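Side project, low priority. Logging it here so it doesn't get lost.
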Amino acid sequence: MIADHIAGRPARFDGVVGSFIVKIFDTALASVGPTQEQAIAAGIDAERVLVVGYDRAHFMPGKAILVLQLIVDRATRRVLGFQGAGPANDALLARVDAVAALLRHRPTVEDLGQLELAYSPPFSSAMDTLNALGNTAGNLLDGLYRRMTVGEALAALRDPQSDTIFLDTNAPKSAAPYLARYPGRWVNIPTKSSRGASTSCRAVALS
C-alpha cells in the first residue's frame, strides 16, 4: 500500500481480520476474528458454537479430528470469529482461510452453512465440518436444540434423580463400558442402524 501511494497509484486498505495459525508439536491451532470474550467486551451479544468433525471423509484412512468454534452475533446472526484445533497439516489452514476471506463481507451463519467448498474424500466430507458449523450455529440461534455444558452433562449423569438420557450412537462394543456403568441412563442406538446416517458421536443428552 505504501509503495503504491509513493508511486502515485491509488490504493485502499480495508483493514485486517486477524487470522493466524500455529503448529505446536503435532497439533495446529488457528483463529480469525474475535473470541467470544473479546466480542462481549466490545458490547456484542455474542454466542459460541462448537463442532467436532473429521478433516476428510469418515471412511478415509488417516482421517483426523477437527475441533471448530464459531463466534456469532445473536441479534444479526453475523459470523464474528472462528477458532479451531486439529492435526498439524493443511486441513485446519483451509478452514481458517475460508472464514478469513468471508469475514470482511459480514457473512451470516447461513452464508457459512451454504458455503461452496470443493469435495473429494481424501480432502473433505460431502458436507464439510465448516458447513456443519454454520448449520449448527443457525440451529442454536433458532432454538432447535438446547446446549449443555460439560459440567451440566456430568452433573446429570451422576444424579440418580435426573431424567436425562445419554444416547450413544457408536458401535455396541464401544458403548458397552458406559452401558454397564450407567444402566438405564446410557442408551446405545448404533449409527449403522439408522438409515441415512454416516457418522457417530459419543453421546447426546436428552432431557
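Brief comment: The first strand starts at residue 20 and ends at 24.
Revisit when time allows.
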